Amino acid sequence: MDNRDKTSRELEWFDLETRMRELIHNQLEPVVKKAREDREAFQGLKVYCKALENRLKSMETAVLGDQNAETIIENIYKRCAEIEGNRKKDTVRLDQNFVLINESVNSFNVEIQKFNERLDLLDTRDHERESEIIKTNQNIEANRVHVLGEIDKLSENFREMNRVYQEVAMKTEEQANIATAKAIANSIEMGNYKREIDVVRKDVVESLSMIKEVRSLKLNIDTFEVESMKVQNRFLELLEEIQKYKDELSKRDQFIDKYIPLQTVILISDYLYAIIDQGTKKKLADYENIALKDLNLKVLEGREVVSRTKRADQILNDMRHVEERKVEFQTKEIKSVAKGPNFAEIREKINIKKKNTFMSHDEPEVHTEAPPGLSKQEVEKIVQTALTAQLDPEIGRLKSEIKVKLEGFKNYLKSFNSESGSMQSHFVSELENLAGRLKLLKSDLLLEINDCRKDNEILKKDIGGCQNLINSLSQMVVCLFEYNNIEQALQRQDEEDRHNMALNMEKELQSELALHTPKANDATTLPSANFTFKKNCLSCGTSNSILSGFRTSIVYNPSSLIFRNKKFERHELLRIKAQMLRKCWDANSKSFNLKYEEIQQDKSSDKITEKSFDKSFDKSTESRPTRISRLNSIDEGTLETKETLPLLVSPSMRNRSQRKSKLVHKST
């Protein structure tokens, strides 16, 4: 497309040049022809006047002798010389004006060529910028789609983890309900001691199996860490790709800043060496020596890559002296004496004709001897009559011809001035049209540059939003990790406390068995049962050591925990966990498009199952206000966070106070 545009512009310029030459030739051809005819007629008149002058001189010498008296023909000759001088001055002035017009036309042609070159450069730069902008938009769009896809995958993984946590919580709550039902059945059926022991053993076995199942259903922290490491590695890869792209942009800008000026200097140098003479080439070589040294030093030095706006300001500041020099040469008066080739040939022909006429007049004339002269008075009469008869019409005819020729020459000057004015106005209109087109092109380029800047700003904002989203996700991951650590510490405490309670119960059973078993040397005693009852049993009036395990569970107070090398109570860790999740959610909830209605719909099934336990819990808490109030404060905090935040449901969120309060109520 560039070659076709260039050839079409060259053809248009060649057509314009040929039409201008034809116009100038058609305007000058009749003028030159008329001037040639006038010069030929003038030469004929000059020869005729020379002959008349010779005849009059001969007559005057014959009549007057050698007296120095001013004659009529001498006056006529002086007048003709003045007219000829004025004519030559006018021709010289017209030649100078024509040369000035030719020089202005040539300078205008040079300016048009420069303007065409600038338009070509602007077109190439525009195409390059469009291609670069398209590439950057494609890369940014691909990165944005990739980042959004990764974020969607991460959100899906979080939702899947939340669903798994909810399933585990439902299963653990079902197992807890079964265990409470079995404990109630055991407290009702304590009448038969052996049956009670078997039932208790079965419950212990089932509780152990339940503990194993709960352990197997817990979230594996290794898989969580592996997934989190994968996500972090993927984010690091994205950051490396973005950094590589930024490095490529900086390298491209550095190449443009360093090597494009060298390429421009090469093109200008080749163009100037092709058109200038040898003396100017020497000056140009000296200047290029200094300029190329500076450019090479700038290429070799390792400086920072400035921004595009700063670089544009530097180029505009460097361009000021070019504008000043251009204005100076445009406003300076042109003093040139160059002559056109056509007028030089015409002058040479005129000079040759003048030399031929002068050589013809310088030849000696042959005079015949006159007959014996008349008297003086007769001669005077004859001369007067001849002069009056011949010179008067000739002088009148000469005057009339001179007037006609002067009027024609004045009309020609007027027509030439009008034609030159029309041509000048045409040139000015063409220049104004070109200036308007340049302004339109500049405005279009500025609009496109502004659009590109706006697109870049929008993309930067999108990238900043993605970065903020990634930061919020990383904060949520850290928060979940800490939450899981606290949860594991609490679960370990639960396991240890259960184990200690089972050991205490087993020890008490063994001690009761040791007290009531008969000794080996006592032969009079009868063999007794494995377990004996005290008189304090509610069902049979005897004592039962199995109740000690339930007593220890009633009086159970959780032990302190060591977390992050600090000592915490259980309720403090629960409060810290709830506060941490609340703050993390308040700080990052605006970055997610998760609605509260969706969370409430997911939790509607959990609330239905909880209502049945709330009624029995309210009835059982009336007898234990102090112990239950402390447990309720902890459970209320967890329930608030559960209702206000999209929490990951864990096994520790079950309400242990309900089961313990029920056992207390039944045992009492």
UniProtKB/TrEMBL annotation:
Biased composition (Basic residues): 656-668
Chain residue ranges for the region called Disordered: 610-668
Basic and acidic residues bias locations: 610-625
This protein's name: Uncharacterized protein
Biological classification of the source: Eukaryota, Sar, Alveolata, Ciliophora, Postciliodesmatophora
